[in-house]
Amino acid sequence: MNIRKPSLFVLCFLLIQFASIAQVVRGPYLQSVSPDQGIVRWRTEQATDSRVVYGESPKKLTKVIELKQAVLDHEVIITGLKPNKKYYYTIGSSKSMEAASEKRFLMTAPKLGSTQAVRIWALGDFGSGTKNQLEVKDAVVKYTKDHRPDAWIWLGDNAYSKGLDEEYQKKVFPIYQDEFFQNLNLYPAPGNHDYAGKHDPSEPPYFKIFNMPVQGELGGLPSGNESYYSVNYGQVHLVSIDSELMEPSGLQVMDGKGAQYEWLEKDLAANKLPWTIVYFHKPPYSKGSHDSDTEKDMLKMRQHVNPLFEKYKVDIVMAGHSHVYERTHPLRGHYGINATFDPAKHVVEKTSAPNQYTVGKEGQGVIYIVNGSGGQLGGQRDGFPLKSAIYSNNKLGGSMILDISKNKLEAVWLGSDGEIHDQFTISKN
Ligand SMILES: [Fe+2]
After folding, report:
1. What are the pLDDT digits (tens) for 46-56?
2. Residue 6 has what pLDDT?
3. Residues with CB under 5 A from ligand 1 (ion)
4. Which of 156, 247, 250 is nearest to 196 (CA)?
5. Residue-range domains of the chain with CATH
6. Distance 45 CA to ligand 1 centre (A)
7. How far is the CA of 192 from the centre of ligand 1 (A)?
8. Fewest C-beta in 10 Å: which of 23, 307, 366, 390?
9. Are 388 and 169 in contact (CB under 8 A)?
10. What tens digit of pLDDT does each residue of 247-303 get?
11. Cα–Cα distance, 101 to 61 (Å, whole number)
């Protein structure tokens, strides 16, 4: 058979065409989505100008935002949106646009103070490139098929092992791109791996890749610092803390003083919503792959910051770091090592049935959860499971789905096998 080689002219033509259509190599992904605005970000292989078109149906993208500067990392803010509304969008440049899709949309956050129920997906220690990471993600895709999450919180160690841009590129973006990055509102926290084991916030790519809502865009107390911030989502106050950040003074949040700690206290004091979840990377209690009896950061967190969580009646403190799942009783005043746990002294709870808590104005203890097996998995230290834990699992990976309405919080730990292995509810009058 005689196959004709393409002429030089045809090759040049194809090359020019290819060069004018810049390949999208990351995203699009949504950042700092609030009730009235959101940021669309993506990366292209060649520098181009940026264009976002959006509208109320994928077939009717009528509004256009253009930024003329040629860049690789595109960042376009869409403003003037209505709360709790779905806007379809797509991305590109003045030369070419990607096709619109049913999966490519921005759902604005509920109006501040709204009592509508929200669903939150909490994922920890995931960007490892493991089979477990994929299975945990697939389980969430399946579980949330008919009721998608409204917001996504990350508990740190988002990309292994140094939080490098290329690690995010290989082990984070491709895994969640299609189902989540292009349509889910993300409020992350960093871990020690994102900081590459250091404490200087000027270094981690994490801060370049993500935009944190630090101006109180979602109703929390403005922090003005991308390491920590809070957002109000429906009836829940979500507080993202940075357990790795060392301030110029040398202080970290677990020292119980310094700018982050002071902001945290003011933020919790200012909160008027019925539910509060504080999340960060290094847990106050764990006997999984890390040991809160011996590791200083965890011990200091427990001694210096837990009293604040208790004072302001935080409902759930969630962390990762330890690559297991551990859920404690509602606790107060347990600042010693595991062996000192005394249920008569430290458990403050009222239940209507096992794992069903009912809370009045006096509050209950704080439920501490380690949810750190979203990719990494396993480990146990002497004393596992924690004496204060109701349920622990270091054999199976998983992540959490929380459904929160005005009077009820329902939490499940969804295993990588697609089954629910732990669940509890908290009811408030
Ligand atoms: Fe960690």
Report:
1. 999 999 999 99
2. 56
3. 157, 191-192, 321
4. 156
5. 23-107 (2.60.40.10), 118-428 (3.60.21.10)
6. 31
7. 5
8. 23
9. no
10. 999 999 999 999 999 999 999 999 999 999 999 999 999 999 999 999 999 999 999
11. 11
